[in-house]
From TrEMBL:
InterPro entries: RING-H2_APC11 (IPR024991), Znf_RING (IPR001841), Znf_RING/FYVE/PHD (IPR013083). GO terms for biological process: anaphase-promoting complex-dependent catabolic process; cell division. GO terms for cellular component: anaphase-promoting complex. It comes from Batrachochytrium dendrobatidis (strain JEL423). It comes from the Eukaryota. This is Anaphase-promoting complex subunit 11. The keyword Zinc applies. PROSITE patterns: ZF_RING_2.
Length: 46
């Protein structure tokens, strides 16, 4: 389940908010996926 503020923003479990297209690109290029701001393991807040 994803937590979306509006169709373009996503909240991570770390509480940082990102534009969906930006975070998708970041996740695709980083393994393991991390938050771009604090490098915690990335997951969408549910």
């Amino acid at each position: 389940m994803t937590s979306i503020l509006n169709p373009l923003l996503v909240i991570g479990v770390c509480t940082h908010v990102f534009h969906i297209h930006c975070i998708e690109e970041w996740i695709e290029t980083n393994d393991p996926p991390t938050c771009p701001k604090d490098r915690t393991s990335w997951a969408v807040k549910s």
